[in-house]
Amino acid sequence: MYLISNGIDSKLFYNKQKISKNDDIINILLVGSYNIIWKGIREGLEALKIVKFLKHNIRIIRVSQTPLTNEEKEIGIIDEYYYNIKPEKMADLYNYSDIFISPSYPNEDFGLPALEAMACGIPCILTIYPHIKVLI
pTM of the predicted model, to two decimals? Predict the structure, then answer.
């Protein structure tokens, strides 16, 4: 017997026809708890703050297991925030987004959201501090 953990539901997470949206806006999805350091959400938000300053057509979509923290609020770049959502809503957010980023540290065991995003056909920017890998 073999155990294959951390799989995804391919009936839910797959490359669907993209949800109609304003083509001038680039939706960037960042998933993970701000308070779990190795998720790299702080670093991701700081990087996106620079990107958003340089390119004004960026919408930052955040998803977490917990409500928005005051620290995140103070960074001031999050356009949409969702927490504790169902997998069906998560699949919709992947398909609404243009880019998925996951800035994690090496001690992050497994990035299930990255796997779900890839299954939905979204370009992913995945980092392992201090290295950056872009998967398209």
Answer: 0.86
